[in-house]
Design goal:
By secondary structure, the chain is α/β, with parallel strands linked by helices. Helices cover about 40% and strands about 15% of the residues. The strands form three sheets. The chain has a five-stranded mixed β-sheet with strand order 1-2-3-4-6. Strand 3 and strand 4 form a beta hairpin. Helix 8 runs parallel beside helix 10. The relative contact order is 0.08.
């Protein structure tokens, strides 16, 4: 479809065609040509139920949710419910609080009847919904200052909230947020405003904080846009290969940071005591 000009399609056929498109296809159309944008966003707006401000989505893929919610917000459309196959996320309660943690996010997820019999698949879906709720509040809240995705997490939630793909999208949302000050993905709070430079400092010491891969990826997203930070100490954390790779990619954009300490960060897959799997 990206090769077809929308001018060649009658309006009625165009709308019917877009109604059949999943979110990744809508994203592809806009990337292919800006001419698709008004049609795609008109279609996205039509998917929001006006009676309860709900939006039905096919999956909980983080990049799709972030793109869709951010775009709808730009269209002045506030979504109150996110519906997917196995769960509904009631996000109305996430609009005003300044501090949100995992129990709060968990309370917003309503598992659909009949799913309880599916065991691990339900746990995975519920944890994905919790991660989606975290992404929603970071993208949409005008009051959020602290987001804690570490305290009280079960194994499935911890896995969902520490996945690399989720961390990349959450990092972008954190950069775009005007209010978020701290984000905890395990180990310690990340000072978001200092990392992205809106509360400028020349040096940051985040050594010995127990920061993992997801934290490393969020740090990378933040320092991409930081024009004042010259020294960053990440000594003795657990950022690993993936986190270090994200930081290295960020340095292709950031030309200000001149001092970076990544010693003892399991960059070869082994920790301080030699435990883990050697991956170098």
């Amino acid at each position: 479809m990206d090769r077809v000009s929308n001018d060649a399609l009658p309006d009625e056929l165009l709308q019917k065609t877009l109604e059949q498109c999943a979110v990744p296809t809508l994203r592809t159309l806009i990337c292919a040509s800006s001419k698709w944008a008004p049609h795609v966003w008109a279609n996205a707006l039509s998917r929001v139920n006006e009676s309860d401000r709900s939006l039905s989505i096919c999956s909980l893929r983080c990049s799709d949710i972030y793109w869709l919610l951010r775009g709808l917000r730009a269209q002045n459309c506030a979504v109150q419910l996110l519906r997917c196959e196995r769960a509904t996320i009631d996000v109305a309660a996430l609009q005003q609080p300044q501090q949100i943690n995992l129990p709060t996010l968990r309370g917003c997820v309503i598992s659909h009847l009949g799913c309880w019999r599916e065991g691990g698949r339900l746990i995975e879906a519920r944890s994905g919904a919790v991660a989606a709720a975290a992404l929603y509040v970071t993208t949409s809240s005008a009051t959020l200052s602290k987001l804690d995705l570490s305290s009280g997490a079960n194994d499935a939630e911890r896995a969902a909230c520490s996945a690399g793909g989720f961390a990349h999208v959450l990092g972008a949302a954190a950069v775009a947020s005007a209010t978020l000050e701290t984000l905890d993905l395990g180990g310690s709070d990340l000072p978001i405003k200092q990392l992205k430079g809106t509360s400028p400092v020349a040096a940051l010491d985040l050594s010995h904080k127990g920061l993992g891969v997801a934290s490393g990826i969020v740090i990378a997203k933040c320092i991409e846009v930081n024009s004042v930070l010259t020294s960053l100490n990440l000594y003795n954390n657990r950022i690993g290969n993936e986190g270090a790779r994200a930081i290295a990619d960020a340095l292709h954009v950031n030309s200000v940071l001149t001092e970076l300490n990544l010693k003892h960060n399991m960059l070869c897959g082994l920790d301080w005591d030699g435990k883990g799997t050697y991956t170098a």
